[in-house]
C-alpha cells in the first residue's frame, strides 16, 4: 500500500503506553481501500512492539490464507463472518464472536466462508 493510499497511518502510533481504536471504524476504512474494493483481502496493524503484534484483517468469502506459522502463540477473534481454521488434523468452524488460541509454531490456515473480519494477536517470542 502506498503512503498516499493510507496516509493516516503516519499520524497513528503503533507503539504507545495506551492505544484506543474503534474497530468498527477501522473495518470501515479497510473496506474503502483499493485492496478490498479491487482485491480479496486487506489488513492493518493496530499495535506492534517487540512483544506483541495486533492486526485487523478482512478476507473476502472463499479466500484462504494457506498454511503458515509464526514463532509465537496467537489468538484470533472473529468480529464478523465465518472461517474454517485448520491446524494440523484439527479443523474448527468459527463465526462472529468466536475466539481461537493457538500455541507457538503450529502450521495453520484460515479460509473465509463469508466476508470476514478478525483480530489477530501474535505474541512475539523473546
Topology (elements, then pairings):
Blueprint: H1 23-32, H2 34-37, E1 41-48, E2 52-59, E3 64-68, E4 74-80, E5 82-87, E6 90-95, E7 99-102, E8 108-112, E9 116-123
Antiparallel strand pairs: 1-2, 2-9, 3-8, 4-7, 4-9, 5-6, 5-8
Hey, roughly how much beta strand do the residues contain? over 45%
**CATH class bucket:** Mainly Beta
Number of domains: 1
CATH topology: Jelly Rolls
Task: Using the 3D structure, state the CATH architecture.
Answer: Sandwich
Number of strands: 9
- Please name the fourth-level CATH homologous superfamily: Jelly Rolls
Order of helices and strands: HHEEEEEEEEE
- Our measurement of the CA-to-CA distance between the termini, rounded to an integer number of angstroms, reads 29 Å
Helix content: 10-25%
The main sheet orders its strands as: 1-2-9-4-7
Evaluate the radius of gyration: 15 Å
User: Averaging pLDDT over every residue, what do you get?
Assistant: 91
Shape: globular
Count of individual helical segments: 2
Task: Summarize the structure in short.
With 126 residues, the chain is mainly beta. Helices cover 11% and strands 45% of the residues.
Could you characterize what this model shows?
This protein is mainly β and 126 residues long. The protein has a single domain (7-13, 21-123), classed as Jelly Rolls (Sandwich), CATH 2.60.120.10. Helix content is 11%, strand content 45%. It is built from two helices and nine strands; from the N terminus they run ααβββββββββ. It has helices at residues 23-32, 34-37; strands at residues 41-48, 52-59, 64-68, 74-80, 82-87, 90-95, 99-102, 108-112, 116-123. Strands 1-2-9-4-7 form a five-stranded antiparallel sheet, covered by helices on one side.
Amino acid at each position: 500500500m502506498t503512503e498516499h493510499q493510507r496516509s493516516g497511518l503516519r499520524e497513528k502510533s503503533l507503539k504507545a503506553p495506551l492505544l484506543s481504536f474503534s474497530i468498527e471504524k477501522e473495518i470501515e476504512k479497510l473496506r474503502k481501500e483499493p485492496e478490498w474494493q479491487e482485491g480479496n483481502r486487506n489488513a492493518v496493524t493496530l499495535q506492534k512492539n517487540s512483544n506483541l503484534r495486533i492486526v485487523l484483517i478482512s478476507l473476502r468469502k472463499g479466500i484462504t490464507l494457506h498454511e503458515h506459522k509464526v514463532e509465537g502463540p496467537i489468538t484470533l477473534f472473529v468480529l464478523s463472518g465465518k472461517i474454517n481454521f485448520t491446524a494440523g488434523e484439527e479443523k474448527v468452524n468459527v463465526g462472529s464472536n468466536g475466539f481461537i488460541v493457538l500455541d507457538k509454531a503450529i502450521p495453520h490456515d484460515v479460509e473465509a466462508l463469508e466476508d470476514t473480519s478478525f483480530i489477530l494477536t501474535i505474541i512475539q517470542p523473546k
